[in-house]
């Protein structure tokens, strides 16, 4: 087998801005030039990213995307989140740059994944390596205004994507045995908001699911499932620049947790509650 690799070339308005962003995430600069055209190459472990400068380029107009396959999405997320907090003072959940949290992707065979959107609007999509190396994850993810398919090259390489349509992102989440309807709705919302970039649709799915769960009363989801859904809805409110809904969801989480004090809070729920501190920090910055 030939020793081949693929490196994505991503557009940006300023290689200086991208340089500072990438260094904060632990990348090293392997090449840089300003003339005759701006160009920057960075590397972190098995991830190579190359950027070329375009004067007047707007992140909202970017269709750039690549895929990173790793054995541990949580470790990579934690490292990048720490770098983002150090550079920006808090975890950026909206705008450019921003990051989503590792979550199970129903459109990627249930593998955990998250997305990092750089200052130029390029989506760096991270997914866990499948147990079967021949079963490449096919998220069929999309940026804010595009539908992108993915191609995978092993050993944690970032690879360029190609556009496609009619992919698995249009399927509703099938869920797992014993999973509540509310958690299945969360999985659907993750596909729309985190994978496709359609945050409004993800919020709409969760709003309907939370309303139906409230109407179900004692027959509804567990406190743990409800908190997970409310916490994710709060995060989507941040992305939509909707502080009112973010505050309301945090209040709902607080009430739900207070009512469930006698129940065992799993480590997973504790993690969700800890992550909400980033939402609270965003709200504090709103004044």
Automatic annotation (TrEMBL):
Region (Disordered) spans which residues? 131-182
The record's listing under InterPro entries reads: Glyas_Bleomycin-R_OHBP_Dase
Task: Output the superkingdom of the source species.
Answer: Bacteria
Q: Which residues lie in Low complexity bias regions?
A: 133-153
Q: Which Gene3D superfamilies match?
A: 2,3-Dihydroxybiphenyl 1,2-Dioxygenase, domain 1 (3.10.180.10)
Q: What is this protein called?
A: VOC family protein
Species, as recorded: Oerskovia douganii
């Amino acid at each position: 087998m030939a020793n081949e690799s693929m490196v994505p070339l991503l557009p940006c308005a300023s290689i200086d801005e991208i340089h500072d962003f990438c260094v904060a995430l632990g990348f090293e600069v392997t090449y840089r030039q300003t003339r005759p055209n701006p160009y920057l190459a960075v590397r972190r472990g098995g991830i190579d990213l190359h950027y070329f400068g375009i004067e007047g380029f707007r992140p909202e107009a970017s269709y750039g995307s690549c895929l990173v396959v790793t054995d541990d999405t949580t470790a990579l997320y934690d490292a990048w989140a720490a770098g983002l907090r150090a550079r920006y003072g808090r975890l950026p959940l909206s705008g450019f740059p921003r990051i989503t949290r590792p979550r199970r992707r129903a459109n990627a065979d249930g593998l955990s994944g998250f997305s990092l959107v750089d200052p130029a609007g390029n989506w760096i999509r991270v997914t866990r390596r499948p147990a079967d190396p021949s079963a490449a994850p096919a998220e069929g993810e999309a940026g804010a205004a595009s539908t992108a398919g993915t191609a995978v090259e092993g050993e944690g390489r970032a690879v360029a994507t190609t556009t496609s349509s009619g992919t698995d992102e249009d399927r509703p989440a099938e869920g797992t045995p014993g999973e509540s309807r509310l958690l299945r709705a969360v999985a659907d919302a993750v596909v729309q908001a985190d994978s496709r970039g359609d945050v409004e649709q993800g919020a709409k799915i969760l709003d309907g699911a939370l309303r139906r769960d409230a109407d179900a009363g004692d027959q509804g989801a567990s406190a743990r499932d409800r908190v997970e859904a409310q916490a994710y809805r709060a995060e989507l409110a941040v992305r939509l620049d909707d502080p009112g809904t973010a505050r309301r969801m945090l209040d709902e989480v607080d009430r739900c947790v207070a009512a469930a004090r006698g129940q065992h809070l799993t480590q997973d729920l504790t993690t969700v509650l800890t992550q909400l501190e980033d939402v609270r920090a965003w709200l504090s910055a709103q004044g």
